[in-house]
Amino acid sequence: xxxxxxxxxxxxxxxxxxxxxxxxxxxxxxxxxxxxxxxxxxxxxxxxxxxxxxxxxxxxxxxxxxxxxxxxxxxxxxxxxxxxxxxxxxxxxxxxxxxxxxxxxxxxxxxxxxxxxxxxxxxxxxxxxxxxxxxxxxxxxxxxxxxxxxxxxxxxxxxxxxxxxxxxxxxxxxxxxxxxxxxxxxxxxxxxxxxxxxxxxxxxxxxxxxxxxxxxxxxxxxxxxxxxxxxxxxxxxxxxxxxxxxxxxxxxxxxxxxxxxxxxxxxxxxxxxxxxxxxxxxxxxxxxxxxxxxxxxxxxxxxxxxxxxxxxxxxxxxxxxxxxxxxxxxxxxxxxxxxxxxxxxxxxxxxxxxxxxxxxxxxxxxxxxxxxxxxxxxxxxxxxxxxxxxxxxxxxxxxxxxxxxxxxxxxxxxxxxxxxxxxxxxxxxxxxxxxxxx
Amino acid sequence: xxxxxxxxxxxxxxxxxxxxxxxxxxxxxxxxxxxxxxxxxxxxxxxxxxxxxxxxxxxxxxxxxxxxxxxxxxxxxxxxxxxxxxxxxxxxxxxxxxxxxxxxxxxxxxxxxxxxxxxxxxxxxxxxxxxxxxxxxxxxxxxxxxxxxxxxxxxxxxxxxxxxxxxxxxxxxxxxxxxxxxxxxxxxxxxxxxxxxxxxxxxxxxxxxxxxxxxxxxxxxxxxxxxxxxxxxxxxxxxxxxxxxxxxxxxxxxxxxxxxxx
Lengths: 438, 262
Ligand code: HEM
What we know:
The complex is a heterodimer.
Chain A: H1 14-22, H2 25-35, E1 37-39, H3 48-67, H4 77-86, H5 91-119, H6 127-149, H7 154-165, H8 174-182, H9 189-220, E2 236-238, H10 239-264, H11 294-302, H12 312-333, H13 345-365, H14 382-407, H15 417-422, H16 426-433
Antiparallel strand pairs in A: 1-2
Helix pairs in contact in A: 2-10, 3-5, 3-9, 3-10, 4-5, 5-6, 5-10, 6-7, 6-9, 6-12, 11-12, 11-13, 11-14, 12-14, 13-14
Chain B: H1 2-26, H2 53-65, H3 88-96, E1 99-102, E2 111-114, H4 128-134, H5 153-162, E3 179-180, E4 188-189, H6 210-225, H7 229-258
Bound molecules: protoporphyrin IX containing FE.
């Protein structure tokens, strides 16, 4: 457990050694999580990798135990979840951990992604690492969407109906695709069954992609708040004990906040309507997805006009999926050579505007498009905010990012991480004065 | 400098969480005209709130005597009443008033028998069609999860039960067989006012006013919706306090490990 243990791994004793010489898991762990040279200047935004790993494992564990009691049948699903809540020992805990776990998983992944956008973590040589990350996001979205259908409440059913129906916008084959997805002519028992099966499967696919994500990370090495490469051992610290200690602290703090919600406000992020059993004959007053889908939902509904031969519905679907596909392309859309926003005075501002834009879209997604934003202001509807927010989102990625790469005058980079740390963080304190470093 | 950076980070986290909370809590309002329920001082509110068992038992009585002729309580079994302080004899006595279909027996016939403590509360109608036919086409919802399944929760149910007006205000066109209630979405509800002064007689001498019965009912219905609440909170305190201490210790460890590096 000592800090300087560089060659202990190969000198392990007995059984460990015996196994390690045949299957080098111990040396692997030692290399990737013991010695792994991490830049010495990580801030707390670098905690979210560990937090996300924890959340995934938590979801898989609670999910497996829930599956032992859950019944994927339209007549029994709702009651089986209530049975878990009432009659299974600590079933309420399992279920609330799982339901709130999804929420906290998404909070963490969004923070993690915006961290990457701020510090330019997607740039050469980390493009593939970023792509795996976006792939994880997409898989998480599919998993959470199907998971939300399982308790078979009103929102489960109507959310599933609305979202699967989107595919009918595809020209010619759309309706057949929807029928194929449903396994019938409506969201029915076959739909619930396959969603359960896929909901069980996908987290393990995610686990696989996480492995690829981490492998690519450990090949390229971690980025850091300065966005410059470590120049040598003086710029890095062994992952253990430095970052194991820091991650443990951050993770414990995160879990504390998470637990506070699970035990004291377990339905805070939930929709009351989903405690009503699904009823295909009774449409809820308003169909809203889970909060983490609201920005995409807003984009979907913001395209309420035909574009040439593309009708509004198809346009909305393209925009919604496009908003995610754009993320895959970010490494090539951003043409600036400087990674960290600390040295990009203009990009920094647009980063914060993008964040606000996404929050705005989330806000819009939760309201009927034709509602007034403020009482008494006649001319401002949610759909207007949706138009603005959506336009800005695409403007940011498609126009601003490429443009900034050529017109922005970046600040001089420090020569090394150590220099910057020793100089009392001059660069970042200067930028703190000029309006908020991260 | 590091400290200040850390602080800024923390502030950023807090403000983002705050913005999100505002965004989220605001997004709950759906369309439709109705009055927002006033908030009440429930015993189960807050981080330390507890169930008021005697109120819950009175609520059970009102449910059985008034509401159970139209509303089911599918998720609750008679045996669960033990949790609110009934003994097995009292539970049997309640169950026996209801009949359930069982079978097939050894002759292959279905038969009716008295309900047992292990049975779920017997629903008043055999199916949705039967329920609608007896209620002018409207469907009385199951009440097991009612406080969890409505915006406004317990406050809303209380406001609804106490909020009936004899006459609709001028200019409001009432549908056939509908009743005016400002708290209901759309303000017209198919359920006529279920509670009147002295609808039940409480054995403990509590005066059965409409607000008292509604209060007791909501306490009861909150228990049927979240029977795990007390256990959840008491475990929650242990877990959260443990995690706080753990977080503090891990922070100390982190400081120690990093002390050479600053
Ligand atoms: C990426 C990880 C996962 C995410 C994001 C996720 C998300 C969700 C969500 C949002 C729900 C609905 C919760 C509710 O409102 O009740 C749910 C339910 C469920 N999930 Fe998952 N899940 C994940 C992993 C798993 C795994 C690995 C399993 C099984 C091995 C599983 C089994 C279940 C079951 C049985 C339910 C229905 C019970 C319930 O509704 O509480 N989940 N999941």
